[in-house]
UniProtKB/TrEMBL annotation:
This is DUF2254 domain-containing protein. Keywords: Membrane, Transmembrane, Transmembrane helix. It comes from the Bacteria. The chain crosses the membrane at residues 33-52, 72-98, 119-138, 144-172. Pfam families: DUF2254.
Amino acid sequence: MGSQLKENIKWYRQMPKEEKWLYKYSNLWMTPLKYTVVSLLLFGLTVWLDLWQNYGSKMPLVQPDYQLTTTILSSLTTGLLSLTTFTFYGVLTALTTFSSMFSPRILRNFMVTKKTQRTLGIFIGSFLYVLLCLLFLTEETSYFFIPVTATFLAVFALGSFVVFVNHIINWLQITNMTIDMKKESMRIIGKSAVSELDVNQLEAGAKIEDQLPKKKGMPILLKESGYLQSINFRELFEQSQKDGILVRLEHKVDNFVFAYSPVLTYWKTEDSTEELDEEKYVNMFHIGKKQRELHDIEYSLNKFVEIAIRALGNDDPRTASGTLYQLGDLLINISQNECFTSYLVDDEQKLRVMIKSLNFDDYLHISFASIRQYAGQNIVVTIELLAVMQAIAKGVKERDHDSVWNFVEYIVKGFDYQYLHRLDRRRFYEILQEIASVTGYTSQYSKLADKSLAHLTDDDEIEDAKKYIGTLE
């Protein structure tokens, strides 16, 4: 128990500042605790002024007597408790309904917003203040600071309530919600734990084949199961240098790891030490009960995917289309800011760590494969998906053009052209031709367009399709 506590404290201290903030404020108790401390200090100050120093009797303008002060405090206690209860009961009811329509993952996004936590803290702190003051009232004292402060807090809580209701209304609009989610995802891109290291990073295509191991390595196992919440990459890299070994990680952050399965594999080199402390490497991995979003853009993308899929299930194609464009914007930023690092080398260009990383094909599949499947024969959504791919093709780096075209082929080949009518056909082929032109696959476009004719049985539709294909070629 003591060793586990020490490991948890060490793990917390090693967290980056942003990760510490998320760890503390992902729970609802942190901000209300701060406001509770402030209310206790305010309570102590006003009680000291009124009860011990009797400054209330020296205020000429307002001097509420004992009966009036008791009435004020008791009324405010009941009112603040009712306001807090009904507000958050209504919020949770609305969010539960909203999450069932789109994604249960969005509950966390709402609860960690500063306005939500601040409002809860103001309600709890104000209620606690008036309740404690009610307990310390005596008939022999003149009051000024206690009732005036309590009245001020009630007005402040009421104003916070109005601001909070406005915040709920704005946040629960699907457009604002997805924009807020996208901003949060943007902060994740390019800020992975690996990118924060001051080490040399090589892309997956780098020519280091001569350093890749040819024989079977030695696995290091974890004795517990759960989500891999974080890896101490800095310590891992430095320790691998000291021990003179090559390390390959078997999991990415936020992957589920089974007990007694390899978490990493290592190979000894000519610089290797005799003894290797495997327990030291095991302690560099932190296993938890749930996924965390801080460095996992895949988790963020899946939230958008869930919203789009549930929107399709609720016959809401406009919400689905809007979510597609937000995903497309994120993918462009991923292409521009990520280097898809797979290898870490030391100053002597010796390969030290091989990590699990996603390439752009993986990000496209994560973002759009499920949507493409659930869209089925929905022509509007499918053409919007191709339009998003067109925008992505124009915005990504040239290295990712192959991935874009391959995924476009994946979309098109799974589409039933029998559902593509004349009004949609021209836009369909225009988008395909534009993507092919941008990515450099014009010859493949011609083959793909010709194959699409084989799915048509009506002679008029075949001639109509040939007209559009021929015009674009």
